[in-house]
Amino acid sequence: METTVPFNLFGKEEKLQFDIKKALELEAVLGKPIQQIARVESAGLTFCLAALPIGLKRLNPHIYMKKIEEYLNVEGNTIDDIAIPIIYALALSGVLGGTVKNNVKRILYPELYPDTKETEAEETEGKNE
Length: 129
Known about the structure:
Number of helices: 7
Radius of gyration: 17 Å
Number of domains: 1
Order of helices and strands: EEHHHHHHH
Helix content: 55-70%
Structural class: mainly alpha
Shape: globular
Largest sheet: 2 strands, antiparallel
Oligomer: single chain
C-alpha cells in the first residue's frame, strides 16, 4: 500500500508502482534523469505514455494512448490528472529522496502518516487548555 498509488482514471481500480529498476527503465525510454522528468512542467503526454506501461501493467503503449485520448476528451480532465499520480508513484519508490517520499506518503495516506507539525501543534494546544 505505502509504495503504490491508486490510479482509477481509466475506469477500473489499478495501482501505480515504481521501483529503482522501473525508474531506470523510464529514464532510458525518455533519455532524461528522473529528477528532470518528474517536474510537473516536464510531465506531458510523452512522459505519461512512457510511464504507464512501466508503472501499471505491461500493455501495448497504443492501448494507453487510446485510454489517455478518451480520458482527455472528457471536459475538465487534463494531462496533469494522469501525470501527478505517476510522479507520486516515482516519489514513493525513493528515487527522488527520502524527504519527497515521506511528503508524498503524508499526502496519499494522511491517516497513516499525519503531518508532524500539525500533530505537535494539536498536542501543545491540548496541554495549554
